[in-house]
Specification:
173 residues; mainly alpha
Length: 173
Amino acid sequence: MRFLLFPSLILTLTSCAELTDLHCANINWYNFGYQTGLDGKPASVITGEAGICRASATPPREDLALQGYRVGLENYCTPTNAFRIGQRGEELSSFCMPEKLSLMRQPYQSGLQDLRLSEQIKGLEAERDRLQDQRDRADTDEDRRAEIRRDIRALDRRIDRLGDRRLLLAFIN
């Protein structure tokens, strides 16, 4: 049994080394660094990737990756991007310079508020759809339909107000 495992282990390790060589040969180091910075990730991600590629046939270009990282992080560390990060409900990265981070906090909070408003709108729209289905059922009497129509109009007004608040948030950010 040992004699069968050893060749398969060698084959597996050889395949892994070939995949690593192929991976490292195809990395655009500048773009990798840029995307890492743009995603607000730490520079240690680059160091880790470079460490993997040091053992490959293609040496890493950590210098290019760090150049790209600086540009990507510069694009990440903007108030406009902070608003988008909040809208997605993601955490704001702390890898920006403190003065940039302080400019990002309010737009980030506005983005989170926009996300909450969006979720409220979706909930109200689901409730409106449920009421419309109930209104359209054949067994709903006319008095109940009139009541449902009033409820739907009230929901539509709430949805419109929340939509206006979202629009205002996007406008000021």
